[in-house]
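Because discrete structure vocabularies remain unfamiliar, we first show an illustrative case, written as a sequence plus integers encoding its fold.
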Amino acid sequence: MMVHLIDGTYELFRHFYGLRSFNKGNDKQFGAVVGVLYGVLERIEKGATHLGVATDHVIESFRNKLWSEYKTGQGIEPVLFAQFHPLEEALTLMGVVVWPMNELEADDALASAAHLAAANPQVEKVCIWTPDKDLAQCVREDRVVQVDSRAKAIRDADAVFNKFGVTPVLIPDYLALVGDSADGYPGISGVGKRSATRLLNRYGPIENFPSEVLGQQREKALLFKRLATLRMDEPLFTDVNELQWRGPTSAFAEFAIKIGEPALGERTNKVAAKVIQHQ
């Protein structure tokens, strides 16, 4: 089987701002939610049987306590932020496993789910649907891959190396050195992308660097590495078959009407009838 893991927060942002280019700021209350749901349904229509969606129930995580400038929910448009929790409710009613994260981030849930799924011999491949460079650290050969639908790219371990210049396991070290503006940490002054890849390919992880390489910036680099390292130990499920989609709940059609998209409920029920027939 294949397991599909979807970054719900990213998808919500993507659909929200994608709609913005057409609606001239006249945002629908659940417009982005509807877009994400159709996207998930499309995955199922194309054959996905086992899938889960990770979301940021709150934007802040334990990382905010480690670095005061780490990303927060500040600046997120209210009409977008108001769709976070309805998306989680909608996915649950749709019968899709969803992991709303509090102390951890959606990325940590994706990393943990990928780790758990890959450990199951029944699983042939794990696809992590997000372009977020943090998730490149979870890639394992061609068994756990990152799917970047925006770039129309599927990245296995070789593709990650070609893109970043380091192997997947060194992605946290790489991000620690070069920084990640999206997450709010600047990296190490004087270290660019080329010098970062040169150092990592020569010495390995930051812990192995000779003391003179980073000097007084060593502790900061290790802190940034901790920020960049995704947690893979969250016990999200015990059996991969918990991720199998078996159709929506009876309340989903009514919810679809409530958000002004009755066709979504009808289409989901039709897909479910076909899926159940083949189970």
Observations:
- The first strand starts at residue 2 and ends at 7.
- The radius of gyration is 20 Å.
- The mean pLDDT is 94.
- The chain is about 45% helix and 10% strand.
